[in-house]
């Protein structure tokens, strides 16, 4: 196995010595402890990293810190009144219909102070397009009524002039008197003094009456011209003027009747009533606002 020297000692390899075995054992133990220490350190680091990832992915309201904050807030005494869904307790007790009406009124009806700041006029309709439309429509219907009254007056004069300037028989005189009475009644209907809201005030009914009276007047004008032919064109200038005037007035009355019939077919009577109702409400509201301004200025 080993060699012996002159002194009698055995020369063994260094790796077979007992001291070497002890060193190797100590080195292996040291390496084992180091490996275990490193493994424990890596495990702790991995656990810490996983906890951080969990906290980052977890919602804020699920954390324990949030629970502690909520507990502290609940334990604190509340001194102010709390409202549910942003509605005060007093308003919750009000009926729902009353609240809706008040909200609608606040959005639809502008206040007097706002109008004063805006610098509007007394009527307060310069900034409202709907009021402009209502005013224009009401003006158109008023214009039609004025033209109709003028036509009736013209036709009434056309019925009276022949009685004065032409020697007509009694039958023609009575017929003209009746037609004159109808003309006066038609004027009162146009002014809404008679039969307001009845079937006689409807546009179709008016159109039928007006056109009938106009055609009767056209026939009367033809009868006057026939009488003038019997006189061999020796009729006076007043008679000729009366015949021409009645002919024109009768055709105007007839055309007015046809126009009213067309308006009735398109239900313009209902449109006129709605427009006048809105216009009346607007004027009443303007009057109240004007009185409120005067009362405020006096105070």
What secondary-structure arrangement, pairings included, does this model have?
Layout: E1 3-4, E2 10-11, H1 18-57, H2 64-75, H3 89-93, H4 96-108, H5 112-118, H6 129-165, H7 170-190, H8 203-230, H9 237-265, H10 268-298
Antiparallel strand pairs: 1-2
Helix pairs in contact: 6-7, 6-9, 6-10, 7-8, 8-9
Report on this model:
By secondary structure, the chain is an all-alpha fold. Helices cover 75% and strands 1% of the residues. It is built from ten helices and two strands. The chain has a two-stranded antiparallel sheet. A hairpin with a 5-residue loop joins strand 1 and strand 2 (10-11). It is rod-shaped and about 170 Å long. The model is unreliable at 1-7, 79-93, 107-120 and 123-127 (pLDDT under 50).
Considering the chains and any ligands shown, give keywords for the structure.
299 residues, mainly alpha, 10 helices, 2 strands, 75% helix, 1% strand, disordered N terminus
Give a brief rundown of this model.
The chain is mainly α.
- Give the proportion of residues in helices: over 70%
**Beta content:** under 5%
Strand order of the largest sheet: 1-2
| Rounded radius of gyration (Å) | 54 Å
Overall, the morphology is rod-shaped
Mean pLDDT: 75
Enumerate how many helices there are, as a single number: 10
Distance between the termini: 135 Å
Number of strand elements: 2
Biggest beta sheet summary: 2 strands, antiparallel
Overall structural class, as computed from helix and strand content, comes to mainly alpha
Low-pLDDT stretches are 1-7, 79-93, 107-120, 123-127
Order of helices and strands: EEHHHHHHHHHH
